[in-house]
Design brief:
The radius of gyration is 21 Å and the shape is globular. The longest helix is centred in the C-terminal third of the chain and has 39 residues. The chain has 333 residues and is mainly alpha-helical. The protein starts with a helix and ends with a helix. The protein has one domain.
Length: 333
């Protein structure tokens, strides 16, 4: 074997040992090529995304993020935890405080669930193992988005939006229940992660309030950065997809893989089975949301494989539940 062949084999082995890095590299190259090919389209969608952040994303998310951070940093969650500890442990295998983070996430939508769970972890109230579990079923589209934006605006049916929100919530709870049996008790190392954070000095009074607001502002910056990036990427993707003339269903799933809103909007243009595509996309939620969650969990050193697998499972369950409802009662469209 020549030196050149040996070097190639070594390179292939290194790449195969880290497929995530290879995928990320290919994704970056693909994105760069799209933007270089269509710079005007990229600038237009970037400008639109910045306006979207200022007019919609920040006003709709920031108050919830700050208030949920206050609830987690203060004693409210700790006081409420004993009331739900037993059902939370029996059904989902998590603590009462962890269940409070799940409830915030289901009610307020992403990334509130992740933000609340990370806050609990950094305050020493849950372990790294429990943080990983909570992430798998606490981050879903909010009721306001599914009912108003998707149902009323995109599908012209508020009833469908209510149905989609109910299905998404049920799917998340099913995934949480299934996760109850996916792994045993946390290891000693995972439990130690909790105690190490518990030794951090506790904030009190005004420090809790100012810390919650500044932390939420920083998280909001992360969220807006991903919204701008993926809105720009989806914009140039749309230009390319239109030129390629992909089937409508394939295009909707392609957009939904990257960004939630664009994918569901595409699905809403498709008669009949577009509703099922929207349910699947809502369950998956898009790479934009996933990277938002990962940025919020930065520094926690957890595996995101369970989270990503759970989103695929949620997507499947969403579709099956909607199909079952349609067979029994018909779609409210």
């Amino acid at each position: 074997m020549t030196a050149k062949s040996l070097k190639i084999n070594q390179t292939v082995k290194k790449l195969s040992a880290d497929p995530a890095s290879v995928a990320l590299g290919l994704f970056c190259i693909f994105s760069l090529l799209l933007i270089f090919k269509n710079p005007d389209v990229a600038i237009t969608h970037m400008t639109h995304a910045l306006g979207l952040c200022a007019k919609t994303v920040i006003p709709s998310l920031f108050p919830f993020m700050a208030l949920s951070e206050l609830l987690v940093s203060g004693k409210t969650v700790t006081l409420a935890a004993p009331l739900i500890r037993r059902p939370a442990r029996a059904i989902f295998g998590i603590s009462g405080e962890g269940a409070a983070a799940v409830a915030l996430g289901l009610f307020c939508g992403f990334p509130i669930g992740a933000k609340s769970a990370v806050g609990l972890y950094k305050n020493g109230r849950i372990s790294k193992w429990e943080l990983t579990r909570i992430l798998t079923f606490s981050n879903n589209p909010s009721s306001a988005f599914l009912i108003s934006a998707v149902g009323a605006s995109m599908f012209d049916s508020r009833s469908f939006g209510v149905l989609l929100f109910a299905i998404s919530t049920i799917s998340a709870l099913i995934v949480g229940f299934i996760g109850r049996f996916s792994k045993g008790r946390p290891t000693a190392e995972e439990l130690c992660a909790k105690s190490s954070h518990a030794e951090l000095p506790k904030k009190r009074g005004v420090e809790v309030f100012t810390g919650a607001v500044t932390s939420s502002a920083l998280s909001m910056l992360y969220v807006c950065a991903f919204v701008v990036f993926f809105s720009t990427l989806v914009g140039v993707l749309e230009y390319t997809v239109n030129a390629a003339a992909l089937p409508d269903g394939v295009a909707a799933l392609w957009f939904g893989f990257f960004e939630l809103t664009s994918g569901i909007w595409k699905a809403a243009q498709i008669p009949v089975y577009g509703a099922f595509l929207a349910a699947a996309i809502a369950g998956w939620s898009g790479l934009s949301v996933h990277f938002q969650i990962m940025s919020i969990c930065s520094g926690c050193e957890i595996s995101f494989k369970p989270y990503l697998l759970s989103k695929l499972l949620t997507s499947l369950i969403n579709t099956l539940l909607l199909a079952a409802y349609a067979l029994l009662f018909g779609l409210p469209l």
